[in-house]
What we know:
Chain A is of the alpha+beta class. Chain A has three helices and five strands; from the N terminus they run ααβββββα.
Amino acid sequence: xxxxxxxxxxxxxxxxxxxxxxxxxxxxxxxxxxxxxxxxxxxxxxxxxxxxxxxxxxxxxxxxxxxxxxxxxxxxxxxxxxxxxxxxxxxx
Amino acid sequence: xxxxxxxxxxxxxxxxxxxxxxxxxxxxxxxxxxxxxxxxxxxxxxxxxxxxxxxxxxxxxxxxxxxxxxxxxxxxxxxxxxxxxxxxxxxxx
Lengths: 92, 93
């Protein structure tokens, strides 16, 4: 499933919008979520899951190809924790 | 940010009613859930990908009592953030 498929589904479910408008609204949804995450905010979608930005400290790692030790800089990573509802939907 | 706050922001920015925004937001996540139920991979460019991983069942132990328990096979969703979003989060854009 790609973004195009999602737009298609939204368009079919929702009368009164053109495909172009449906695409623009889906894009807005993603932009709003991205902005919140970029600000370091959690995004919690009930019965789906929670997106959280976590800060990682710098650490020593290894290039698996050359075996050389190098420092991995401090960075932020985005994690997703599925909700209980989603987990049970996938296993019912 | 919660789903209702997301809906409010979408309604404001797209200049549509709250009801319409709620329908679209719910439609997006419901479709994603349906795809995951089918075991399908979801690719959203500049945001990330969702995949469904399968785990075999195994015999585990209750760490407190030491009793054997059968852990059933299960499916779990995984998310990997896309390059664009990774860069945004790290302030490189």
